[in-house]
What does this fold into?
Amino acid sequence: MASNGPADADQFANQERSLQEYLTSNETVKIYVGPERKLWFLNEELLCDRVPFFKSAFKSGWKEGKSKVMELPNDDPEAFGYLVYWVYTEVLKCKLCAAPVHWDEAYTAPHVDAAHELQWLKLWVLADRVNLTELGDSALNMHLRCISKHNLVISPEAVILACENPAGNGVLRKHLVEVVMNGMFRSPLSDGSSNGLGVGAAANASFNQEVMDAIQHHLRIARIETCPYELCLIHDPILQDLGALDDLQIVA
It folds into this structure.
């Protein structure tokens, strides 16, 4: 049975504290992020309550606990900015989607905007390092949302990042494979977006093989009832009758 001791009561109290209550405190910590040492001044109590990684550092006998200063030279400042936004608001919002840029333009095969997707993959790397599973899952959900919303395809930069970060039992690699599969099989591709699906996969030979293996496994599924995609070009009889398969191009 779960304990109802003081530790649980303190945790519940921390969850109930409002942002306004936290911001009445003038106790802050300084965190330098990235090789250019971008400086953040953050509320110590809020940061430590929301992220146990920082609590272990700033509420301990470590040097950070005494100096109230932390260096994160290997982390990405943009990803850290999203983490800070999440700490203060408990939500994620894509600033590139909100910006008045080209996202309403029609898809063209060469158009692969790495920055749009890398922001979320780098956030997952950071979240994994500081043991924030919830934030990491949200980052991957946002990545899939942005990819789907704007008919983007995974970039070579994304594949390289995933292959260089084997953390979490290859979670990033598995996620990108699933993104490719979603883009290839889940919906009609009459806008031509399938033409770029192989570009990112080709950036790494072992990743490309994973994609090919996933495709072959999917093609062996015999019944629509066992297909994981609601609108599958291979298994949905209605799409087959409409000739949707004519638009599917697999680039190895």
Notes: The longest helix spans residues 167-185. The chain is about 55% helix and 5% strand. The first strand starts at residue 28 and ends at 33.
